[in-house]
Model the fold of this input.
Amino acid sequence: MATQAIDAMIFTSTHPDIVKRTSISGLIFSTAMLLLGVLVFASTFEIADRTSALSMLLMVLGMGFFLLGIFCLLWKSKEVVYVPTGSVTKEYTLFFDLKYMEMLKEMIETGHLATEEGIKCEGSGNVRMDVLLSQDNKFVAIQLFQFVPYAYTPMTSVYYYTDKDAAKISAFLSKCRGN
Done:
């Protein structure tokens, strides 16, 4: 378990075992959307009556597919990967009531997030937990925030857990998300 400075944010902090790489499936999807957009837009020039509703519909659809392709290419073609296992990570944000803050803080610092403590996750709350979790449950990064008027401020550093510790924390998180 390692930590970083409290001013670091979990989704922007770096860890030696976490890398950002290009997603092949995302790249293929965005390229397909770009090509489909160009083809649909170009098909409007094959229609004899360019003022028809069909021509306008094809033009709008072509532009829509093209813009979707650009969006996916620029923002959705990257994925964050836990290098030792090659597992893709996902970002989660969980919210809790303020009465659980000290208990959560202690559990995160000790690395023992217990499912029996009765902590309930909510739709929104004064305590926010940002989580970066690998799909194989071998890596977890957690940071706790408290809402102080107008913004969430970090209450803990970024904590990293691997292997068995990560599996225990993942069980806690899946129970929280299931509520």
Observations:
- The two ends are 27 Å apart (CA to CA).
- The mean pLDDT is 85.
- The first strand starts at residue 2 and ends at 3.
